[in-house]
């Protein structure tokens, strides 16, 4: 017997089939959209668990032996600066590095009035290597002035950028726009994610092949570097490097947390929002950052400070002429530290 019931699909018209097909497609789109929204919400809210670690003091760089813990780099400047990096003995004779029981100074030569092939300066690399930790830099004075490019940073110079670079304190020339904190890596480390920081995001891709190796940078306010910082007696930069991410804090001299002053076991989980936050969400911190030395230097001119667009904003003539001729201008070009301390989680 032939059924004429409309519940039998065999008897459905083309129109009905089209209607069903359309309904299925619409449902699929709605479900897809909901799942997609949930997924992008999940991604947008993803944030590492920076819960408290118990830090214990590993290394202290301080006192008359401060500079004994470093190698002095003397090769051709990798950043194309107009500079001659002086060795340990020469730096002591020229008083470019100088340490007492309470303080350490690293400076640019201020005596040569005809430095036609570049001015003498210093670049020190810690003998010890690190792959994580809490780094506390007590800074009295930061270098500044036309042509200068000072930095306090970490990298593995023989495996760059494979082992990454962490720039904790860096500025150029008059340095009136605040400290710049930056990571540089190989491909696959991005910061276009949820972050908790008070600094201003400059760029988000840490890959050295992007934007001519600009890295992923965050900028502090004006008083985090240079003349403004020095006038306040300096302060402390703290950098925490752990698998969940890399964070940096700045504390002016008048507002250093007591657990840093006491020094036994500083606890970043009590310090409030970081100045710069580089979470691991889209960057495997463990694989991108390894085996690093702490480096401090003062470069002159070079690929950043000396680039004509950057140098000519506030500085006279040619960068290399300024370096060669204006010896006394470098009297403000010195680092002064009370101590550097490195803590590891227990
Ligand atoms: C830190 O120390 C406290 C007190 O000893 C302990 O309860 C806690 O589990 C430790 N945290 C870690 C991450 O080891
Ligand atoms: C070296 O520099 C320090 C700090 O500026 C200064 O106190 C000291 O007198 C200098 N030493 C010499 C031999 O010039
Ligand atoms: C500066 O040095 C250059 C090259 O060494 C030399 O030719 C020139 O005479 C020097 N100028 C002065 C004022 O000493
Ligand atoms: C980035 O690093 C690679 C690998 O070392 C290198 O070949 C390249 O020149 C670097 N690019 C820049 C812009 O520094
Ligand atoms: C770590 O760095 C040191 C010094 O730069 C280098 O000699 C050594 O080969 C590096 N180790 C690894 C595993 O890359
Ligand atoms: C030398 O440096 C001082 C201090 O930065 C500056 O005021 C002066 O204009 C400079 N002189 C020349 C010739 O560049």
UniProtKB/TrEMBL annotation:
Pfam families: GH16_XgeA. GO terms for molecular function: endo-1,3(4)-beta-glucanase activity. The keyword Acetylation does not apply. Residues 48-313 form the GH16 domain. Its EC number is 3.2.1.6. The keyword Lyase does not apply. Belongs to the glycosyl hydrolase 16 family. This is endo-1,3(4)-beta-glucanase. It comes from Glonium stellatum.
């Amino acid at each position: 017997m032939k059924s004429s019931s409309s519940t039998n699909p065999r008897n459905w018209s083309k129109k009905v089939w089209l209607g069903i097909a359309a309904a299925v497609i619409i449902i699929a789109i709605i479900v897809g959209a909901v799942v997609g929204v949930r997924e992008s919400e999940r991604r947008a809210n993803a944030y590492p668990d920076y819960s408290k670690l118990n830090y214990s003091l590993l290394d202290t760089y301080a006192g008359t032996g401060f500079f004994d813990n470093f190698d002095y780099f003397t090769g051709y400047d990798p950043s194309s600066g107009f500079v001659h990096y002086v060795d340990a003995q020469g730096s002591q004779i020229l008083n470019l590095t100088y340490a007492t029981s309470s303080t350490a100074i690293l400076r640019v030569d201020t005596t040569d009035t005809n430095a036609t092939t570049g001015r003498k300066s210093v670049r020190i690399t810690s003998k010890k290597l690190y792959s994580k930790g809490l780094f506390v830099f007590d800074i009295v004075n930061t270098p500044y002035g036309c042509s200068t490019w000072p930095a306090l940073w970490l990298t593995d110079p023989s495996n760059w950028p494979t082992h990454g670079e962490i720039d904790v304190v860096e500025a150029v020339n008059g340095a009136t726009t605040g400290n710049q904190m930056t990571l540089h890596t190989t491909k696959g480390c991005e910061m276009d994610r949820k972050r908790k920081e008070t600094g201003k995001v400059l760029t988000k891709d840490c890959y050295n092949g992007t934007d001519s190796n600009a890295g992923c940078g965050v900028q502090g306010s004006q008083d985090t570097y240079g003349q403004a910082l020095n006038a306040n007696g300096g302060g402390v930069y703290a950098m925490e490097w752990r698998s969940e991410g890399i964070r940096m804090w700045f504390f002016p001299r008048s507002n250093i947390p007591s657990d840093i002053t006491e020094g036994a076991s500083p606890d970043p989980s009590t310090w409030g929002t970081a100045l710069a936050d580089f979470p691991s969400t889209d960057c495997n911190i463990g694989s991108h950052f390894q085996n690093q030395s702490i480096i401090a230097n003062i470069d002159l001119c070079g690929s950043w400070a000396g680039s004509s667009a950057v140098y000519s904003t506030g500085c006279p003539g040619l960068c290399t002429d300024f370096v060669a001729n204006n010896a006394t201008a470098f009297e403000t070009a010195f680092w002064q530290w009370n101590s550097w301390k490195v803590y590891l989680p227990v």
